[in-house]
Amino acid sequence: MSVAIIPARGGSKRIPRKNIKDFGGRPMIAHSIVAALESGCFDRVLVSTDDPEIAEVARQWGADVPFMRPAELSDDTTATAPVILHALEWLEEQGSRPDEACCIYATAPFLKPRYLREGLEILRRTGATTAFSVTTFAFPIFRSLKVDEAGVVSMFWPEHRLTRSQDLPEAYHDAGQFYWLNTARFVSSPNLYAADSQAVILPRRLVQDIDTQEDWEVAIALYEAMSAMEGKST
Q1: CA 208 to CA 203: how far, in whole Å?
Q2: Is there a catalytic annotation at residue 14?
Q3: Which fold has domain 2-134+173-233?
Q4: What's the pTM value of the predicted model, to 2 decimals?
Q5: Which of 50, 62, 151, 196 has the greatest number of C-beta atoms within 10 Å?
Q6: How far apart are the first and last CA of the chain?
Q7: pLDDT of residue 130
Q8: One of 9, 117, 161, 205 is an active-site residue; which one?
Q9: Of 11-20, 114-123, 140-149, 159-168, which gets the smallest average pLDDT?
């Protein structure tokens, strides 16, 4: 059995009510719920929240909200892993702990079902503990700069000052969309970045962090541009 777990607490401060704010004509969290349902990967799509309004919106879009997350797992400092563990423990108490689970962030409006399916295939094929979404940096990180308190610029890796960009290794960062988990392995060692983690590589155009108002505006512009392009291609 495979289960999607979508964490969505109610206390977002930089973008108030971010998880259910309208994004492209639907609540933000609805994009994640719909992608999970359309992927065909899951026996259940659960939302873990402490907020009754988020719970109601999630149910309207087809997710289950069978429990409310406790307050001690809903503050600004709570990491993702304990929230996943709480959901898995609840499922085990009900006699239905899944073989695989996928944590999907509620703020992932560019999530595509095909990448969820790809992640599950990678997890099963490799036997990894986790498989999660990553994308490339837009600029070689080995040519990155730092600025000190006096405004002086220097390179982090000055030995690469003259190295051609094409000769530097590709670097990736967490795309912040989803994490597939082998639940037995994850429960025994709850770390999303396991020693054997596998990458599900996304194109950069489908990745946008949404933590600030500026992030939100950039994401809306990207979403509208992509929607217009998809409309032209149909």
Answers
A1: 11
A2: no
A3: Spore Coat Polysaccharide Biosynthesis Protein SpsA; Chain A (3.90.550)
A4: 0.93
A5: 50
A6: 35
A7: 97
A8: 161
A9: 11-20
